[in-house]
Amino acid sequence: MTCKKPIDKKTGFDISEAFSRFDQRNEIYCRSEWDEEIKSKKATAFFGGHYMPNARARKADGFGQKDYALRNATWHVTNVLRDLRRKSDDRKEGFFDTFTAQDDGWPEPYDFSSPAEATGNLRRAAVSMGVGLLGVCEYDERWIYSARYSERAQESKPVDIPEDLPYVIVIGEPMDIDLTATVPSALSGSATGMGYTHDTVVLLTLTQYIRNLGYRAVSSMNDSALPIPLAVQAGLGEVGRHSLLITEEYGPRLRLGKIFTDMPLLIDQPKRFGVREFCDVCQRCSSACPPKAIPTGEPSRTAYSISNLNGVKKWTTFAEKCFRFWAGQNSDCSICIRVCPLQSRLQQMVQPPVAKSCGNEVAQCHAAGRHLLQ
Ligand code: SF4
Ligand code: SF4
């Protein structure tokens, strides 16, 4: 496998020979199941708290019964799909495994006159489904996990993304800005839950549409591949100091999904709009992070633990500090998203996303957005 590719010049990814693909078993959530260093009663209670009888609601503002009621309801649809084949087939779909809840499509591919026509059609269809952002990049094996995680065996298992699907459609679904603003609270987790729900609905619907057109398509949310580098390559945004994707339209306030396909599509180009330079001087996320999990210095190749990616020069967070904080407060946290100045309401004035391919007005709108951010 080549660790460097020509697209790195456009994304700014600085990848050394020490690079190795990420094994999902080393993700912090997986480690909370098998790694004695991360496993704890608090971690178990944190996950269990996503179901009302175990929610441990308390009197503190934002952590009451109504707050957990909404937070847990927003996860419900995603959880139902996640659990469809969990017991029967050891598949935790959307998190450890690709989605399989698709019907057969048309036997022959629809004859688009060109990739441009196919891409325009796809974008219009995605808008009708409620997509937030959509970009397309080439399949890149560097970002495919070296292995998936088997919940049953608590071991690695082979990835099942076919290598002959040349394109990856990356989607982003925005998280509600007002709910995000309530962090620290259990209520703020509702923004995450609904982000995943919208992700799930759009992923399954768009994947079925592509299959109905006669092409192959596999939909994936947090499973099977690192979504952020694919999103950068698909032109959705840049990576910030907090290690999250920052987009012009929603800042870091979104959830990502991807569809692997052979539908003939136009590739988007990575875009740089000053995130790296802004983060060089802004430390708001580092300062605001309660457990100090976000670095203050320059991007580096330092991997703090097995939960970090090797060989990529970037800002890397301390996954253990972050997760222990979540478990300790019995709710996930998005303080680094809330405080990031690149997610201000002004960005909502920037053109809604997918229409970006529609013409001049949007170009003007993007320019206006950049101006406001400067
Ligand atoms: S989610 Fe919270 S704890 Fe984790 S890095 Fe962001 S601010 Fe820190
Ligand atoms: S808070 Fe500042 S340093 Fe952190 S990601 Fe946002 S812009 Fe970058």
What report would you give on this structure?
The structure is a single chain. The protein has 374 residues and is α+β, with helices and mostly antiparallel strands. The protein has helices at residues 7-11, 28-34, 41-48, 65-74, 76-82, 86-89, 115-128, 177-180, 189-212, 227-233, 275-281, 284-288, 319-329, 335-339, 360-373; strands spanning 14-20, 133-138, 148-150, 155-157, 167-174, 217-220, 238-239, 245-246, 254-261, 310-313. It has a domain at 24-271. The protein has a four-stranded antiparallel sheet, with helices on both faces. The protein has a two-stranded antiparallel ribbon with strand order 1-10. A hairpin with a 4-residue loop joins strand 3 (148-150) and strand 4. Helix 3 (41-48) crosses helix 13 and helix 4 (65-74) runs parallel beside helix 9. Residues 348-374 have low confidence and may be disordered. Bound molecules: iron/sulfur cluster (SF4) (2 copies). Residues 242, 289-291, 293-294, 317, 322, 325, 333-336 line the site of one iron/sulfur cluster.
Question: Could you name the key traits of this structure?
Answer:
15 helices, 374 residues, two-stranded antiparallel sheet, binds iron/sulfur cluster, alpha+beta, disordered C terminus
Based on CA atoms alone, the radius of gyration comes out at 20 Å
Beta-strand portion reads 5-15%
Total of DSSP H or I helical runs spanning 4+ residues:
15
- Please provide the ordered H/E string of secondary-structure elements: HEHHHHHHEEEEHHEHEEEHHEHHH
The total beta strand count reads 10
**Quick one: biggest sheet?**
4 strands, antiparallel
Tell me, briefly, the overall form. globular
Question: What is the first-to-last residue Cα distance?
Answer: 40 Å
Round the mean pLDDT to the nearest integer and report it: 91
